[in-house]
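The protein record minuted underneath.
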Amino acid sequence: MWTLYQHHKGMHYLHLGQCLHSESSEPFESYLALYDNPRGSLWVRPSGMFHDNGGPRGSKRFVPIGSIRKLSFEESHQVLPFGFDAWGQGKSLNEFVNSYETNKNHLRGQRFVLENSDGEPVSTLNTLRFRDHLTGFAWLATNPDKRKSGYATMLMHGVIALLQNENPEMNFILHSEIGVRYYERFGFEKAPVEHQHFEKSVAMYLGGAPLKDGDERVFKEFF
């Protein structure tokens, strides 16, 4: 689990853990910037300074606002209803949830969930690792009662940062059913026409272009 913090200036950061200075044993906090910071994304700060009241009028410098964690398969029933209104296609809610017991991408994917400060799951994203350097995003959905609050955006920024911290060469692909403008804010671009295989969704990519040998096939096999 990774705690999501908001800095008193408004930026969001994802806490990775605590580390110790090799000479003094002073504790430091390691965290990722969830925005385009030209100086870098991975930061450390002395623990005392990270948790102090260095904000305006003695407020906290960093305030915890939620957390991101990996979701186990057994917990999926908690978040699958988030997508019912978009993808239910005439099924009942139970039929919709149960249909994922045989869904290929659901079974092989690793789902992440964003929980708010009360520990309530509010947004979820499925990730599909196609190559060491290539991850697909699918099934981004937010609890209908919690939409328009920026949760999906925070989750996208957090998962991208985590996977790029794991592998700086990581590239991403997705198929957007809502146009391209939303995903462009994360740096995604519309893939070339030869990768557009589905009438109702737009293939997009984030990272190196052109795609590496063999990656182009993934666009067609994504669904």
User: Anything to note?
Assistant: The domain at 67-221 is CATH 3.40.630.30 (Aminopeptidase).
